[in-house]
């Protein structure tokens, strides 16, 4: 067997009433053997007691457990995994004290075993953490400096594509300037037309002014003749 008893005693076994959580319920009619077992494979300590073929105690000791003496011959401890509280009634105070000493001893051993187990887990997980860190901080390689073949090919494609784009880009200004030129030609033609109209109007106005001057001169001459006649 992988589990071997390392300490045994005899006691009356009780469990707390699951309903009231106050009263003790006897699980053995008489004193039975209560033993500490050590599982070398799993490195755990357990308290086991059998009443015939029925296991009335099967409690794995953890560092958080506490064995409490509630009287000279009675002690108890809570087992959260079993969701109960166990009580033991001994025939003497000496047997109770001896059981309590062993409980503290194996509780400390369970704590040390747990710490060693955690250390092993940390040591085992360290390489994977380092490799994970290596993935984050990847070393410099020729590929990372110069780029891979695919990455190095990318700029060449871009460079080759730029000259092909140049004719289209250069054609845009010519098309745009041609449109602007036509626009200004139309504007210039309009201005020339307006200028011709203004010139014609000016000439017409000039002709009218000359005509008005001639008429004014005629009126003045006529006025002078009339003035001479009157005088």
Summarize the structure.
With 231 residues, this protein is α+β, with helices and mostly antiparallel strands. Helices cover 57% and strands 23% of the residues.
Please give a structural write-up:
The structure is a single chain. With 231 residues, the protein is an alpha+beta fold. The chain has three helices and eight strands. The chain has helices at residues 93-136, 142-146, 149-230, and strands at residues 3-16, 24-26, 32-39, 44-51, 54-60, 68-69, 74-79, 84-89. A hairpin with a 2-residue loop joins strand 4 (44-51) and strand 5 (54-60). The longest helix is centred in the C-terminal third of the chain and has 82 residues, at 149-230. It is rod-shaped, with a radius of gyration of 58 Å. The model is unreliable at 128-176 (pLDDT under 50).
Question: Top keywords for this entry?
Answer:
single chain, 231 residues, PH-domain like, eight-stranded antiparallel beta sheet, 3 helices, 8 strands, 57% helix, rod-shaped, HOME1 protein, G protein-coupled glutamate receptor binding, Homer_EVH1
CA distance, first residue to last residue? 169 Å
CATH architecture group name of the domain at 3-119: Roll
Outline: rod-shaped
**Averaged pLDDT:** 77
CATH superfamily of the domain at 3-119: Pleckstrin-homology domain (PH domain)/Phosphotyrosine-binding domain (PTB)
Question: What would you call the structural class?
Answer: alpha+beta
Rg calc: 58 Å
Number of helices: 3
- Poorly predicted runs are 128-176
Helix content: 55-70%
Beta-strand percent range: 15-25%
Could you spell the SSE succession in H and E letters? EEEEEEEEHHH
Subcellular location: Cytoplasm; Postsynaptic density
GO molecular function: G protein-coupled glutamate receptor binding
Region (Disordered): 114-173
Keywords: Coiled coil, Cytoplasm, Synapse
């Amino acid at each position: 067997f992988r589990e071997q008893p390392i300490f045994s005693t005899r006691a009356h076994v009780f469990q707390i009433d699951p309903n009231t959580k106050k009263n003790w319920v006897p699980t053995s009619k008489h004193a039975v053997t209560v033993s500490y077992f050590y599982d070398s494979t799993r490195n755990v300590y357990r308290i086991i007691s059998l009443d015939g073929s029925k296991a009335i105690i099967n409690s794995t000791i953890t560092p958080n457990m506490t064995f409490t003496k509630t009287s000279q011959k009675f002690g108890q401890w809570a087992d959260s995994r079993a969701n109960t509280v166990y009580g033991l009634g001994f025939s003497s105070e000496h047997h109770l004290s001896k059981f309590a000493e062993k409980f503290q001893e194996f509780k400390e051993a369970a704590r040390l075993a747990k710490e060693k187990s955690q250390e092993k887990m940390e040591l085992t997980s360290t390489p994977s953490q380092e490799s994970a860190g290596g993935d984050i901080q990847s070393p410099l390689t020729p590929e990372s400096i110069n780029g891979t073949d695919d990455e190095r090919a990318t700029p060449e494609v871009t460079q080759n594509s730029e000259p092909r784009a140049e004719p289209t880009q250069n054609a845009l200004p010519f098309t745009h300037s041609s449109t602007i030129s036509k626009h200004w030609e139309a504007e210039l033609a309009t201005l020339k037309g307006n200028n011709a109209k203004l010139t014609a109007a000016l000439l017409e106005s000039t002709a009218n002014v000359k005509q008005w001057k001639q008429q004014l001169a005629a009126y003045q001459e006529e006025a002078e003749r009339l003035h001479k006649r009157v005088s």
